[in-house]
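thought: user wants a sequence for this fold. calling inverse folding tool.
action: design(structure=
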């Protein structure tokens, strides 16, 4: 498996610092979720059309890949004009990913509007995902629906993927959220969405009801998520894709600095993977 980190974890680093640190810490790639204080990557100077080739070359010359672009696009948007804007932004990110050689673009399901049935939400999400899948397929990119917000129930996510019914629409499995928030067993989650999993997010936490979320993020291996079991499951099922460290420093400034958390993740994942039974 290949290891990357999301730039959500290093909001103050420049592109040069991101590339330098990724190489120094032994990562294989970078997942971009913001740069230079801007979350919309299509607005970032280094990702403008006339600079994309140079940015891609800089990253590739360091022996790194861009494995994913993470957007704020949502499939559930009540206002038609806002939905159109969200879909347009997702398409722009797909075009950017294609130019940068990134295989994946992440989108959210989004909050299901009040009064909308689950069946209608699944149908609507499937239509919107399929439309993005058509655009992505022509650019050799895949759209990944993350197990997030109102879509952390794996059976619900599976139904959306079945409704989309498109080979360029897959799943970004944030293992933490269904396990922690929806209290879903990891094995059972894989049974629901395993065939669609194209990438995996990694983070850890401990229960803490004094915290706003009811839990606190901690370094991988220092929390309660059963990562040894999760990695064993992935290996057993032939998953050999990206593991992306999502350290939410931008949203939680009190957690450890990336200079501490990133190299720790790299060494801990290597340790855990070395202990996974093979064959």
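)
observation: tool returned 279 residues.
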């Amino acid at each position: 498996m290949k290891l990357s980190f999301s730039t959500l974890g290093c909001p103050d680093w420049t592109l040069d610092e991101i590339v330098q640190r990724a190489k120094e810490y032994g990562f294989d790639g970078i997942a971009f979720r913001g740069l230079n204080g801007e979350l919309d990557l299509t607005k970032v100077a280094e990702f403008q059309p006339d600079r994309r080739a140079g940015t891609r070359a800089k990253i590739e010359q360091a022996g790194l890949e861009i494995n994913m672009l993470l957007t704020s696009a949502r499939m559930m948007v009540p206002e038609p004009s806002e939905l159109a804007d969200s879909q347009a932004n997702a398409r722009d990110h797909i075009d950017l990913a294609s130019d940068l050689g990134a295989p994946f673009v992440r989108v959210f399901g989004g909050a299901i509007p009040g009064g909308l049935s689950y069946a209608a939400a699944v149908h609507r999400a499937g239509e919107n995902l399929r439309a993005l899948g058509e655009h992505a397929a022509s650019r050799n990119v895949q759209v990944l629906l993350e197990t997030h917000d109102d879509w952390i129930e794996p059976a619900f996510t599976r139904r959306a993927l079945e409704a989309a019914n498109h080979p360029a629409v897959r799943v970004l499995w944030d293992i933490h959220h269904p396990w922690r928030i929806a209290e879903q067993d990891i094995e059972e989650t894989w049974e629901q969405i395993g065939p669609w999993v194209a990438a995996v997010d990694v983070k850890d936490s401990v229960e803490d009801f004094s915290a706003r979320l009811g839990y606190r993020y901690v370094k991988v291996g220092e929390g309660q998520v059963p990562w040894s079991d999760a990695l064993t499951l992935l290996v057993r099922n032939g998953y050999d894709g990206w593991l992306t460290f999502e350290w939410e420093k931008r949203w939680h400034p009190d957690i450890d600095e990336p200079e501490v958390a990133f190299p720790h993740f790299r060494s801990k994942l290597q340790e855990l993977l070395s202990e996974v039974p093979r064959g």
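thought: summarizing for user.
answer: Here is the designed sequence. Residues 2-274 form a domain with the TIM Barrel fold (CATH 3.20.20.150).
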